[in-house]
Amino acid sequence: MVVDGRPMAYQAGDTVAVAVLRAGEHPHHGGTICLAGDCGNCVAQVDGVGWVRTCQTPCRPGLVMQRHPASGAPPLPVAGQSDVTSSPPARHIPVLRREAEVVVIGAGESGTAAAEAARREGKSVTVLEARDGLEAVAIYAGRTVIVRAPDGMLHINAGEVIVATGAAEIQPVCPGNALRGLVTARAAQQLHAAGVDLGVAVAIGTAPESAPCAPLSGRLVRIESEDEARVSAVVTVEDEEGERTTACDTVILGLGRAARDVLSRMTDEPSVSVVGPAAESFPLPPAPTAGTVCPCSRVQVDDLSSVWERGFLELELIKRATLAGTGTCQGSACLPHLRAFIAARSTEIPEPFTARPASRQITLGEAAAGVHFDAFRRTVLHDEHLALGARMDRFGGWWRPWHYGDHVAEYWAVREGVSLGDVSTLGKLIVSGPDAVEFLERLYPVTVADIRVGRSRYALLLNEGGHLMDDGMIVREAESRFVLTFTSAGAGHAEMWVRDWIDSWGLRVHVLDRTMSLAAINVTGPLAGRLLERVGLTAQPRFLQHVHAEVAGVPCHVMRLSFTGEASFELHHPVDRSAELWRALMAHGRDLGIAPHGLQALQGLRLEKGHVIVGMDSDLDSTPRRLGMEWAVKMGKPDFVGRSALARTAEIADHRRLVGLTMPGPAPTEGSPIWSEGEVVGQVSSSFTSPVLGQAVMLGWLKRSPFPERVEVDGRSASVVQPPFYDPEGTRARA
Amino acid sequence: MRALETLPGLRVVATPEALDAASWAEEPLVLRFAPDDAFAMRTSQIALVDLADEHAIVEPETGFVGAWMTSDELAERVLPHVEWPLPAARPALAQGLIAGVPAKLWLEDDRALLLCVAAYAHELSERLG
Questions:
Q1: Which residue, among B15, B46, B61, would best test binding to A if mutated, counting the most A CBs under 10 Å from its CB?
Q2: Which of B55, B65, B76, B84 is the best substitution to test chain A (most A C-beta atoms within 10 A)?
Q3: How many CB atoms neighbour CB A119 within 10 A?
Q4: At residue A520, what are phi and psi to the nearest 5 degrees?
Q5: pLDDT over 90 for what percent of chain A?
């Protein structure tokens, strides 16, 4: 194998750590070697993967080990990923899912006994043993055991879990404990059995049975080194005697054991039990006074003392304040010493801290195995967009066209001609029932009963706090039947919101979510009406009216409204007819200069009209007053969701306002700070260089009153104005 | 993985009692997504259902795609991506994430129908391979 770029021989049966120690080196840079996988003192980069426990990694021809830096972390491997709209390629790590009656973790004496006992009760038993390649790394609530297996990950849903993982050896905490040449008693035995020469070895505590060494009596004080790298002597002290220094090459440490119970500490479910040494309560080591207590996070005893003096008097707080126990071994090395440290300063021995997955180092790939990227929806016009050269991106849970190559040209198609927009992603809910009007009156802050059949009304959707959640249209189809529309990103939550309130109020209203069943195309622009006339829509609805009609032979629910500021007709139709309708409209509009527009153009078009995008221009606590949309709230109604909160806060001075801003030149970056008299007073939420107005237009939040009339954005002077910036009378939308 | 194809049908939302008692002029395969929500496959004619609920929502439905498969195909291609227990009874409708995609399974004795909304068809197909 190759170690730090040099060839290194190994013997059959060697782990990487043993081979490196055989060569007289250390797999890390120092620290006690346990060879049991319990600590982080032998981690290194193996075949490009960092933080691998080399004591658990068998040697093989061609294996490449690279020591971690002496301080800091190894560099992260970086894959070139210039296109953030595509999912990065990943090495596939398969997940096998299994059900098991009983899972026993550990095949030692206690694990074997537990497994046999369970079998005698007629239960089927799955035994997981790390030495056999089945290493349990986590137990999640519901008794899902996560296992690293040779060919992937194993996720086992178990009826019962028995943790029989034995006990780990206690590591020394004293000055010099980060040197090379320190091994635990069991590691010394393994190394001796493997033929590794330990040189002049001394043993402190319980000496190993087989490895040759000179036992030393007394308490470990410190470990010394002549070259600040490797052990040269150990200093001990006995009661009432002075320090004794013993020269050596290796210090063997038999300092006792601690329960290896990290897996059982991940859950407190009664059906997860611990047996054998993992369940034992071993004596704690002496309270540490100096040295490295947590080798993984390089926490010193001085660090513990420092936080203790500052009032961090509990184990969980000390863990958080120092990061002791949060490293790769998850406290296996330091936990007994942390508990001893606290016990010496208080009247109680603290219980071990909660453990969290994973108990052993796993790669991000292994952690993410079986986890999928968010599923993003495609409209049925996806391929049409691609054929037209669209650059697709993810918005509100959907793939949508950002532009088709020239968003300014798309903009002008809307302002001066006719354009198509794919708005299939809008939420669409049918509500029907004898209590439909009553329900909508209670839900929305606008009046609903006076919306005539065939008409529609814009409405905000508020929560109980009077904060904006979503917005859309209320479209009345019959006396007791409506279509509600919502934003693309808010549709899913809106549906739940609607259903919850219907249930809460006990009203007789049916709900059907048509978001996925109906596509929608927005035909917009001053020539939209002419185009639609060509494809059969001769009786066209007026502004805020809607009709059911065939368009190019496709049954459509045609809604007349406007987000772009121009005459707009939303054609809602069955998804399986959408491509047919899109192509017909494109074909019939060719001589009118028809062009589709993407979201980039749309965001500018709507911004010129001052229309907010919920979530982009609004915050979680945006009220209609702050948004300048009190016109959309009828406080005269007896009740609606959010009314009481709005009534309570109406008289309270408010210091936040969404305002319009204009300034010459190009638009600043969205999110730019807004300055006034040398102080930041807000930020830009939307910005666009308006082709028709020849200046930058913005929506932005001012968060300090009195609201100034002039501010600075991007180092330029900007005017605070009342939107809309374009066609304030709305004559074009109504045309 | 067989191609997911549009499953035309009728979507009916009505009171559970009305749906229980609904009479169909044809013999569609009716999947009850919820007590008040049914998807009747193999029919798209609104007139073919008779319901005792004047406020019922009855709409042609073309938003679902799906593919029939044998039990062996189900076990081999789909079930490894299902993290939740399937119902033991047959026939049965099961709903949840399959390979991280919202989907449904109609399980019969010797075959199954995998279905999802058309907007997720590409994701489900790609993930099931």
A1: B61
A2: B55
A3: 12
A4: -150, 135
A5: 90
CATH class as words, domain A285-348? mainly alpha
Which three-class secondary structure state does DSSP give residue A316?
A: helix
Subunit contact A574:B60, Cβ cutoff 8 A: yes
For residue A464, give the 3-state DSSP assignment.
coil
Q: Select the residue from A86, A144, A432 to test the B interface by mutation, using most B Cβ atoms within 10 A.
A: A432
Measured between beta carbons, the chain B residues lying within 8 angstroms of A376 are 123
Whether residues B69 and B121 share a domain: the answer is yes
Pick the range with the lowest mean pLDDT from A368-372, B14-18, B35-39.
A368-372
Instruction: Report how far apart, in Å, the C-alpha atoms of A637 and of each of A440, A447, A633 are.
Output: 12, 7, 9
Report how many Cβ contacts below 8 Å link chain A to chain B.
81
**Any residues with CB less than 8 A from the CB of B75 and at least 6 apart, and which?**
none
Q: Which chain B positions have a beta carbon within 8 Å of A481's beta carbon? A: 55, 57
Q: Print burial letters for B74-93: b (CB count within 10 Å at least 16), e (below 16).
A: beebbebbbbeeeeeeeeeb
Sole residue written with tokens 């990065």: A88
Residue A114 sits at φ, ψ, to 5 deg, of -65, -40
- Its domain, for residue B88, covers 65-128
Return the closest-CA partner of residue A482 out of A439, A519, A442.
A439
Q: Please tell me whether residues B70 and B124 are part of one structural domain.
A: yes
What is residue A646's three-state secondary structure? helix
- Choose among B8, B100, B120: nearest Cβ to A377: B120
**pLDDT computed for residue A576 by the predictor:** 96
Q: Kindly state the tokens that stand for A142.
A: 């519901």
- Range A431-442 average pLDDT: 98
The CA distance from B19 to B9, in Å, is: 16
Model confidence band, residue B43 (pLDDT cutoffs 50, 70, 90): low
According to DSSP, the β-strands at A152-163 and A272-274 are parallel
Note the pLDDT of residue A93. 87
Neighbours of A571 (CB within 10 A): 28
* B11 to A691, B23, B37, B42: CA distances (angstroms): 46, 14, 7, 11
Q: Read off the amino acid at residue A714.
A: D
Between CA A473 and CA A138 the distance in angstroms is 48
pLDDT in tens, A121-179: 999 999 999 999 999 999 998 899 999 999 999 999 999 999 999 999 999 999 999 99
Q: Domain locations in chain A?
A: 2-66, 95-167, 172-254, 285-348, 377-425+517-592, 427-514, 606-640+653-734
